[in-house]
Amino acid sequence: MMEIRKNLVAASKYGTKCPYTMNPEYITVHNTYNDAPAENEIAYMIRNNNEISFHIAVDDKEAIQGLPLERNAWACGDGNGAGNRKSISIEICYSLSGGERYYKAEDNAAVVVAQLMKQYNIPISKVRTHRSWNGKYCPHRMLAEGRWDNFIERVQQAYNGGGHSDEPTIAPPSITETGVAYIEGNRVNLRSGAGSGYGVVRQLNKGEAYQVWGQKNGWLNLGGEQWVYNDPSYIRFEKEGQISPSPVAGKRVESKVNGLNFRNRPSWSSADVVGTVDAGYGFTIDEKVMVDGSPQYKVHNSKGQIFYLTASEAYVYVK
């Protein structure tokens, strides 16, 4: 549950910002295309006199509401169509530069969307992109990084009562060479740039594993402005398509969380989810595979049925 703080537009501006009452039937997701926090987004929207408006802005720390949810917003560019007249519009902040704070804002937005679905009995099939209404390339970062299906899956998981997503949410920079970095030391510095002169974002510890989206001058990019030096004394980097033969075949993998998805083929699409597994339950591992740059375990159950499960150590462990 995420609190939605209210800073509502003055009723005297309803004629400009939200002239029509509505019973919400859809939820539309947008990216702000700037780096302002939610508080600033809402303050600017309710202060100006433009016929541009939205209901909620979400950043890495909070969600703020600027319009009554049962009045329309001018956000979807479809005139008096259902996007503007029957949809709650949510802006996700920090999408211009991206990075860790944007991905956190995206996670928060998934929770907010799930709450609104419950509040107004809106099915997940009616959670849509701005692009779906008028063709505008929005939410631009989510679309560019090909993660809309992942976002919808996070919404569904939040709706079902879980706070976990089994797909990595960090996204690739423009450089190449992907794989997985296994942390084999403690207090390993994660920096904001590819060099020791950049600030320390946080420290990584033994047993953690991260998707690598690129490499630059010996530094591995872990998504956005997050870099770690590729020192084999404390980093084991396995490039995509070149994962070494895994010693885990035949071992048991178990979930650390409730409601972890498993699929009937190697993919991250919600369409391929065929079930969930709760904490302490799992499967027998056949092999470890890379799927769209992220690791999964090919597994089987006691009946010999084959499934695919995330290999992220944040969500599973091998016995």
TrEMBL record:
Subcellular location: Secreted
Catalytic activity, EC: 3.5.1.28
GO molecular function terms listed in the Swiss-Prot or TrEMBL record: N-acetylmuramoyl-L-alanine amidase activity
GO CC terms: extracellular region
Domain N-acetylmuramoyl-L-alanine amidase residue range list: 14-151
CDD domains in the cross-refs: PGRP
Entry-linked SMART domains: Ami_2 (SM00644)
EC top class named in words: hydrolase
Superkingdom of origin organism: Bacteria
Major subcellular site: secreted
Gene3D superfamilies from the UniProt entry: Peptidoglycan recognition protein-like (3.40.80.10), SH3 Domains (2.30.30.40)
Stretches assigned to coiled coil: none
Keyword list, A-Z: Cell wall biogenesis/degradation, Competence, Hydrolase, Secreted, Signal, Sporulation
Reaction(s) this enzyme catalyzes, per UniProt: Hydrolyzes the link between N-acetylmuramoyl residues and L-amino acid residues in certain cell-wall glycopeptides
Gene Ontology terms describing biological process: cell wall organization; establishment of competence for transformation; peptidoglycan catabolic process; peptidoglycan turnover; sporulation resulting in formation of a cellular spore
Family membership noted in the UniProt record: Belongs to the N-acetylmuramoyl-L-alanine amidase 2 family.
Protein name (Swiss-Prot/TrEMBL): N-acetylmuramoyl-L-alanine amidase
Organism: Bacillus thuringiensis subsp. tolworthi
